[in-house]
Specification:
402 residues, alpha/beta, FAD/NAD(P)-binding domain, 7-stranded mixed sheet, 5-stranded parallel sheet, 9 helices, 21 strands, globular
Length: 402
């Protein structure tokens, strides 16, 4: 049984990342005045630029701002980490033992990086040529390793299961390959891209384009394969071919490893998690974002078990649907707003070019920019990625205006 609540709010939002802050801002703009956001971090990160930092095309400082400057005015910020949720008692518990009661709960706790699930990976991160753009502090190391390489073997990996921005594991490979081409060392470099899937990308139209991009750099694509072990001291990686059931040990000079990912451990252990999913993502109706077991619990962002890619663009489209349905629930009305699974992935294909993949639950292309062929790598799309989308994020999306 949960301890009695020490404080109570009409709406409690777990998580002050992209999904949580966007939703809090929209709720404030909708007239809600009793909202608490549970978030321990003092810094807020714009993660879509991590790849660009790792590729040497943006400063690390462009990706981070103080959380205090982004928290919507009028929101109660509880600067602690959530460790439990009891949807029957309608409470959230934090690490220091604070128990917060709610009438409505929004779950946006984000995703957990499970580096430890690959033996040897954690111990060698940031050294021995091993890095990962999925950690803020390692993004400059990625660029150092890429910049200083003058030939050899570079391995770029993607884990099985849903991850944040499924295009990021290969985007850094293209940025690196383009740099090595400009440095006249691409012909001395063996590039191996390790993908767990049978295709380059979940959406077939863009998958075909990416096949051509990889081939243009001479990248060796290992599909239905995974990184299973790293020996940092020896600079060796074990790659498993899951289809053939075989393993190969490859000596590398550079390894960019993307870790397996899951819901936070405490979420996995909560009654809100979907028991059918080992990664512990939270159950939610894929259109209304309402939990099927508790109609006053809503979920969005990376921790939601939705059949779409986990991106900030998805959270941007989910947030207005969630807010509309939460306010409807407060008024005793049914959830009428619907999310169609829209997500987008800006796929950087070189140091100056990008294509933009946008699609819905049915993998149907859903372009949002008229008169532009976003399936073709373009310089104007690169400018959108580097400058336009960050401005949209900081100044409009987190303010509940886009």
């Amino acid at each position: 049984m949960s301890a009695p609540a020490r404080e109570h709010h009409t709406i409690v939002i777990v998580g002050g990342g992209t999904a949580g802050l966007t939703t809090a801002a929209r709720l404030i703009r909708a007239g809600q005045d009793d909202i608490a956001v549970v978030e321990p971090s003092s810094q807020h990160y714009y993660q879509p630029l991590f790849t660009v930092v790792g590729g040497g095309r943006a400063p690390q400082s462009a990706t981070v701002r103080p959380e205090s400057g982004l928290m919507p005015k009028g929101v109660r910020w509880i600067r602690e980490a959530a460790v439990a949720a009891d949807p029957d008692a309608q409470t959230v518990t934090t690490g220091p033992g604070r128990v917060i009661g709610y009438d409505y709960l929004v779950m946006a706790p984000g995703i957990q990086l499970d580096f430890g699930k690959v033996p040897g990976l954690t111990e060698t991160l940031g050294k021995n040529g091993v890095s990962s753009n999925y950690r803020f502090d390692l993004t400059p190391r990625t660029w150092e390793f890429i910049r200083d390489m003058r030939g050899g073997t570079a391995i770029f990996t993607m884990p099985a299961g849903p991850i944040k921005c499924a295009g990021a594991p290969q985007k850094i490979a293209y940025l690196a390959a383009d740099w090595w081409r400009h440095q006249h060392v691409l012909d001395k470099t063996r590039i191996i891209l390790v993908l767990p899937t049978a295709a380059m990308f979940s959406q077939p139209d863009w998958a075909r384009v990416l096949e051509g991009v990889a081939a243009g750099y001479g990248i060796e694509v290992r599909k239905e394969s995974q990184l299973t072990e790293v020996d940092g001291g020896a600079r060796r990686a074990v790659i498993a071919d899951t289809k053939a059931g075989t393993k190969e040990t490859i000596d590398y000079d550079l390894l960019h490893a993307v870790p397996p990912q899951s819901a936070p451990d405490w979420v996995k252990d909560s009654p809100l998690a979907d028991p059918a999913v080992p990664a512990g993502y939270i159950k939610a109706d894929k259109h209304t974002l309402v939990h099927p077991g508790w109609p006053n619990v809503f979920t969005l962002g990376d921790a939601a078990n939705l059949p779409t890619s986990k991106t900030g663009a998805a959270a941007r489209k989910q947030s207005p649907v969630l807010v509309a349905n939460l306010i409807a629930a407060m008024g005793g009305r049914p959830a009428a707003a619907r999310y169609n699974g829209y997500t987008s992935c800006p796929l950087v294909t070189s140091r100056h070019r990008m294509l933009l993949a946008e699609f819905d639950y049915d993998l149907k292309p859903t372009p949002s920019i008229p008169l532009i062929n976003t399936m073709k790598p373009r310089y104007d799309m690169w400018l959108l990625k580097r400058y336009g989308l960050p401005a949209l994020y900081w100044h409009l999306m987190l303010r509940g205006r886009a």
